[in-house]
Amino acid sequence: METNSTIVRSLNRNYPITMEEKWAFAKRKPMFFGYVAAQYFLSTQKQKPSRKEMDVLALAEQKEFQEKEHHIQYFHWKGEGKTILLVHGWNGHTGNFARIVPALLEEGYNVIGIDLPGHGFSTGRFSNIVLSAKMVRRLVSEVGNPDYIITHSFGGAVATVAQELGVLAQKLVYIAPPLRLEILRKSFSDYYRLSEEEQEAMRLVLERKVSQPLSSLDLGAAGPKMNNSLLVIHDEDDLEIPFSMGLAVSKAWKQSKLVKTKGLGHKMILRTESVKDEIISFLKEV
């Protein structure tokens, strides 16, 4: 009787099952594992902006659009010059560009930053490259094509897919870009020691979610089709997205420049004066 009572209490608890509990259960039920692993892979962890980031965001006009169940927030710092679109990285938000935005405004640029699905002030707990790219395209349908796009990490992949969906830009700045989603999926699988069968189940679910083969989400393959200029800035000590990926992305573009930094890692690179200067210099080039 006591055992049954314990079971009833656990089934009727008023808090959601954690992703870790779902994972442990799915490991015993292979038929569910592909779904749970994909859900785990695509789940986001929203980061609260710092006071400095909030101060910069407060200078912008905050707006929202809705696409199906997604409520997407974006920020607009109005300027008379060319338009720049900011696309943040995984688990990031527009505020991550807080050290770069003031310099862009000083140069007179019109700056817009989007919080991707499941990130920042936008709704949701999950995201993926294709969904995020579609939200970028939706934003562009309202504000027009940007002249330049500046991204960090995952944002580089999003911007690339968005361009394949029709978004146009003259210049791109990719800070610490990933090369292809399949590599990230493989790293995830290795970290959690997934079997080949489990990896395949996960891959199939992911492909259903993005409605295309994971192999097609490849910046290296997309590069030769792009006619815009690209600046890649990547730190050789980046432990999240290896420098080799940024190097490969740079080599794939017809017109590209690679700037290698040292000792900044994956996040400090956004808060460094020399990186900001490289971006401004590149945007000013004729």
UniProtKB/TrEMBL annotation:
<dbReference type="Pfam" id="PF00561">
    <property type="entry name" value="Abhydrolase_1"/>
</dbReference>
<dbReference type="GO" id="GO:0016787">
    <property type="term" value="F:hydrolase activity"/>
</dbReference>
<keyword id="KW-0378">Hydrolase</keyword>
<dbReference type="InterPro" id="IPR000073">
    <property type="entry name" value="AB_hydrolase_1"/>
</dbReference>
<protein>
    <submittedName>
        <fullName>Alpha/beta hydrolase</fullName>
    </submittedName>
</protein>
<dbReference type="InterPro" id="IPR029058">
    <property type="entry name" value="AB_hydrolase_fold"/>
</dbReference>
<dbReference type="InterPro" id="IPR050266">
    <property type="entry name" value="AB_hydrolase_sf"/>
</dbReference>
<feature type="domain" description="AB hydrolase-1">
    <location>
        <begin position="83"/>
        <end position="161"/>
    </location>
</feature>
<dbReference type="GO" id="GO:0016020">
    <property type="term" value="C:membrane"/>
</dbReference>
